[in-house]
């Protein structure tokens, strides 16, 4: 079972955004800038996973979102926001409907839409500590165990 991501400090989020930017964007020929702004938690976001702010160029993420969906989802959200970020700074089409946007999402393998908190489809319960895990995808309970106590998991109706 993957570890549940707890709320990450704004400093760490900014570092993470810079790392993702370096890894996926900065080697592209038309991108010449690093991530030079801030990535912060916004607890007031409800169902939105993250957003790119204009004109400040900062990125905000919803801590409830990555607490629920885990570290990988946080990476995906930040990557998605970085597509907005880099295109905006290059004066290219940075909106969801824009061709530049769709193309860059494809190149860096970012989700084109990841803004909404969807309701999870699967629920699992630990047989030992009774912790519940909500997941979007089916989990192989033979392979994965409880992230807290290593107890076995069983599906429980949602
Ligand atoms: Zn977006
Ligand atoms: Zn457990």
UniProtKB/TrEMBL annotation:
Q: Where is the SprT-like domain?
A: 11-156
- InterPro entries in the cross-refs: SprT-like_domain, SprT_Zn_ribbon
Q: Which domain of life is it from?
A: Bacteria
Q: For this chain's UniProt record, which GO biological process terms are given?
A: response to stress
Name it: SprT family protein
| Species in which this protein is naturally found | Proteinivorax tanatarense
